[in-house]
Amino acid sequence: QLQLVESGGDLVQPGESLRLSCAVSGFPLDYYAIGWFRQAPGKEREGVSCISGSTNYADSVKGRFTISRDNARNTLYLQMNSLKPEDTAVYYCAAGPNFCSGSWEYDYWGQGTQVTVSS
User: Which of 36, 53, 60, 116 has its CA 20 to 30 A from that of 17?
Assistant: First the structure.
């Protein structure tokens, strides 16, 4: 059974860091392009970062977020530094053959984890 399970979301202050994890089951981590998108209340979904050989980042997170994966653990990570209030959103792990092609299209996704950045 194919599953993506996110964890690591929390309430943090501006400038702090968080690391999100996505435990993947049902397919090898490097089988599809895989990454993260987020959705804030009242806003459209936004692709954040993806990895498929190379890595891509949204302009809004470049230099602050780092995507990585541990193939042995079949787990994807998103290290988020220098967090800002505008990073507040539900973060979803997602995968699919086209997720890292520029369209941020995905076929599989998890239940999401809440990240809140507030003082």
Answer: 53
The b-or-e profile of 32-42 (16+ CB within 10 A means b, else e) is bbbbbbbeeee
Q: Running along the chain, 119 residues long, what does each successive block of 10 average in pLDDT?
A: 95 98 94 96 95 94 97 97 98 95 92 98
The alpha-carbon radius of gyration of the chain (Å, integer) is: 13
Question: CB under 8 Å to 82, separation ≥6 — which residues?
Answer: 15, 17, 64
DSSP alpha helix (H) spans, the chain: none
Question: Which residues, in sequence order, are bridge partners of residue 38?
Answer: 46, 91
Amino acid at residue number 35? G
Listed in sequence order, the residues at least 6 apart from 103 whose beta carbon sits closer than 8 Å to its beta carbon are: none
d(CA 43, CA 66): 23
Q: Give the list of residues 6+ apart from residue 59 with CB closer than 8 angstroms, or none.
A: none
At residue 15, φ and ψ (nearest 5 deg) are 95, -15
